[in-house]
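SEQUENCE, STRUCTURE TOKENS:
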Amino acid sequence: MSTTRIQFRRKLIVAILLCVAVGGAVVRHYATPGSTTRDIATLLMVLWVPIIGNVIAWLIGKRPRRAPKPVTDAPPSFDTPGTFTPHALVELTFRKPAIPSQDVPVAPGEYRCALVLDKEGFSARWVVPPGDALERGLPASLAIEFLSPALARPRFPEGTAFRVLIGDSFIADGRVLRAEA
């Protein structure tokens, strides 16, 4: 079935319901108040109501849309994965997962997270070097890079305890060993 046949059928249905509603309005006008004829004519008029939403949606769809405004200030992001500038040395203790089969060491690679202090979160990343793996439950010293160091550094002085959030799960607890210059 082509879209032209569907469009034709939709237009035909709208025209029929409009005629039924107009006919109902005429009958209602001449019917005696309180009679069954008047009530049925009112019902015929009401048949038009569901179509109104479709007509309004069709009109909104025909309205020309404005082009989105260009983004002048891109949100901050980390540089390319090869460039890593450590802002703090931290000690992380990865939590044991609830499912024993997921209790595997943290593999080498780059990890992005949020470091959470009370109700504030700061975007950060750390790198597990190739050939190394971090055991869950054991503390590990790692260099952390903040996405916005100007905002995060004052909140993470030496000795500050925090939680590590990835996705919707807290995966580790940590504390700052020293702030990098």
